[in-house]
Amino acid sequence: xxxxxxxxxxxxxxxxxxxxxxxxxxxxxxxxxxxxxxxxxxxxxxxxxxxxxxxxxxxxxxxxxxxxxxxxxxxxxxxxxxxxxxxxxxxxxxxxxxxxxxxxxxxxxxxxxxxxxxxxxxxxxxxxxxxxxxxxxxxxxxxxxxxxxxxxxxxxxxxxxxxxxxxxxxxxxxxxxxxxxxxxxxxxxxxxxxxxxxxxxxxxxxxxxxxxxxxxxxxxxxxxxxxxxxxxxxxxxxxxxxxxxxxxxxxxxxxxxxxxxxxxxxxxxxxxxxxxxxxxxxxxxxxxxxxxxxxxxxxxxxxxxxxxxxxxxxxxxxxxxxxxxxxxxxxxxxxxxxxxxxxxxxxxxxxxxxxxxxxxxxxxxxxxxxxxxxxxxxxxxxxxxxxx
Length: 388
Description:
By secondary structure, the chain is an alpha+beta fold. It has 3 domains: about 5-105, no CATH class; about 110-225; about 230-385, 3-Layer(aba) Sandwich (Protein Transport Mog1p, Chain A), CATH 3.40.1000. Helices cover about 40% and strands about 25% of the residues. It is built from 10 helices and 15 strands. It has helices at about 15-30, 70-80, 110-115, 115-140, 145-150, 155-185, 195-225, 245-250, 310-320, 375-385; strands at about 5-10, 30-35, 40-45, 50-55, 85-90, 90-95, 230-235, 255, 265-270, 280-290, 295-305, 330, 340-345, 350-355, 360-365. Strands 7, 8, 9, 10, 11, 12, 13, 14 and 15 form a 9-stranded antiparallel sheet that branches. Strand 13 (about 340-345) and strand 14 form a beta hairpin. The protein starts with a strand and ends with a helix.
């Protein structure tokens, strides 16, 4: 068996003009197609000779780059005209003819346009699918948390956005090319072959390479998401926090931690990203004792974001408030040094503060309704937030 020299196709499988042009140019250099696998063309080497190549749309489904022979009638008609099927690529059979006097494989462009109908239909459907994943899917899946994800996991959203946008671009390129080709064929124009088509194929390959790079970035981002700092137990956590805790609200004292279960935790998660230098997810359930007696018992949840840009902090604040149990009951506050403030005490205390690029959402409650109310604790939350 002759040795095969493998080269990547410089154009996608649906670009029949670019593929035919490239294969004919390779034959002029002494490389003759024998196989097509996984986006690679296998050539045997010989003396340069003029060979015509034509792509014929399959009637059924041919798996990508897997060999499948045309039916007997098609093979017989092609052989009678001096053409033989070399291999299949995508949804096309690739035919070759070394006889310059043999008639064209496709003598009627309008018939060839009809053969492309199913492939065009698939291309249009692919545009709809790509549009769904590029536009509608993010709105459905990330609705209500898009900006918080941009702050906390920017690499994930960036990679996903690139993959979706490039996928949509490639689907549009495919659909527009096939639509334009079918339109020219219906007008009786033959496919155009030449350098321009090969350059177009190389440009599309560059876009495909960018999509593969974006997919790799997405995979890395998903892997990195697993590496997001784990929640740390609050007992023993000594790093300073940019917001008030239960001990701060009580004016100091000894912390007696509540026993943890499926619903109660005492943890803090701290992360830093390119779009947010500091993101805190804080949960505390404890009693604060002074001179051996409890002065405050309750729970405190804090979502804190310090973003790179004020516009991002504004959108994060809007999402955080929308996630409250009763956001419609929240009332605005006017506080000195605070750009935006909202609060509600139904059914429990919730407070949102934003100053510049920093935003904090607090959920606060006391056990059995005893101890500080949110209104009483408000000055402590504001003072600690302003101090950063």
